[in-house]
Write a structure and sequence with these properties.
Strand content: under 5%
Helix content: over 70%
Number of helices: 3
Order of helices and strands: HHH
Structural class: mainly alpha
Shape: rod-shaped
Number of strands: 0
Oligomer: single chain
Distance between the termini: 99 Å
Largest sheet: none
Length: 76
């Protein structure tokens, strides 16, 4: 116990430094940051389902263009 009393000023200074520099976060702060990250991701990236739907639509458009091209060639 005497060692704690001897080093208590240093311990207090170190703890205050950690608090000021926000080395340790509370669960509330962590949850808030998590929500911010999720919102940012939703703004910048597309969902996998949307991507698959778009890819399928591109494939359908490509098939239709190929059919039109074939018809134009057959007409010549």
């Amino acid at each position: 116990m005497e060692h704690f009393i001897e080093y208590s000023p240093i311990i207090v200074v170190v703890l205050i430094f950690f608090i000021q520099q926000r080395i340790f976060v509370t669960p509330e702060q962590l949850e808030k940051k998590h929500r911010e990250i999720i919102e940012e991701i939703e703004e910048k990236f597309v969902s996998l389902n949307s991507f698959k739907d778009l890819k399928e639509q591109f494939s359908e458009v490509k098939d239709k263009i190929d059919k039109i091209y074939d018809l134009l060639i057959d007409l010549k």
